[in-house]
Amino acid sequence: MPAAPSPKLSAAPDEQGGPSPDILAAFEAAKGFMPTDEGLALYAAAVEAGRLGLPLLEVGTYCGRSTILLADAARRAGVTALTVDHHRGSEEQQPGWEYHDPETVDPEIGLMDTLPTFRRTLHRAGLEEHVVALVGRSPQIAALWNTPLGLVFVDGGHTDEHAGADYAGWAPHVAVGGLLVIHDVFPDPVDEFTGQAPYRVYLRALASGEFTGVSVTGSLRVLRRCGTAAPAQG
Ligand SMILES: C[S@@+](CC[C@H](N)C(=O)[O-])C[C@H]1O[C@@H](n2cnc3c(N)ncnc32)[C@H](O)[C@@H]1O
After folding, report:
1. Which residues sit opposite 211 in a β-bridge?
2. Is the pLDDT of residue 149 over 60?
3. CB 231 within 8 A of CB 175
4. Rounded Cα distance, 208 and 167, in Å
5. Residue 204 CA to ligand 1 centre (angstroms)
6. Whose CA is nearest to atom 8 of ligand 1?
7. Which residue ranges form the domains of the chain, and what is each CATH number?
8. Cα–ligand 1 centroid distance for 61 (angstroms)
9. DSSP string, 27-71
10. Model confidence over 104-123: pLDDT tens digits?
11. Which DSSP symbol is given to 97?
12. Structure pTM?
């Protein structure tokens, strides 16, 4: 059977510099967890960071909802979006947990596999050529990484172990003037639904003195790397 051609979505930004209605509709139609207001804040950060001419990296692809926005911002900037995931799901997405979606289970092996859905999402949005998917564990990939990044978006595992390792592994690669974006930051334990590890990572970034707060939208926090020193390599 011939492959379905990638649709030609209109990619012209809207009047405020946000995503085109087609790209926004693709984001909203994709499986995932990010509300639209946070998606628009992520998009604005990615467009701004794209001006550095460096790749934009996401930890936590899932089915590609937020990746659509990073990919479109990368396309506009002429850079590449990178997205890291082992595609086996986070703790709260496993069978029996609140955020489990049975459609994400590979029936042959009985484990979650969000990679096929992610690939379909990106194909339907016409953005495949702007994205490199890195399939594996975030700390293992970060340990091999040696390229400065314009933006790092942390939306992977929500335990202290995983969120802390994502920060330790990827934040050093954010270039001076680049942005660190953290999702699911809940300062009040009453609002938490997947734990407060991302909030602790946010506090850690601020306390390091290496990042300064830029914006708050829902549970999304944008920080900028300050200073003039070159980012750590390797
Ligand atoms: C909250 S979801 C990401 C949601 C996505 N950004 C969106 O907008 O829909 C978290 C993802 O992180 C992945 N993940 C969790 N821990 C990881 C790790 N240590 N390494 C790689 N991926 C991980 C899970 O497989 C899951 O797909």
Report:
1. 225
2. yes
3. yes
4. 12
5. 20
6. 66
7. 21-225 (3.40.50.150)
8. 6
9. HHHSSSS--HHHHHHHHHHHHHHHTT-S-EEEE--TTSHHHHHHH
10. 999 999 999 999 999 999 99
11. S
12. 0.94
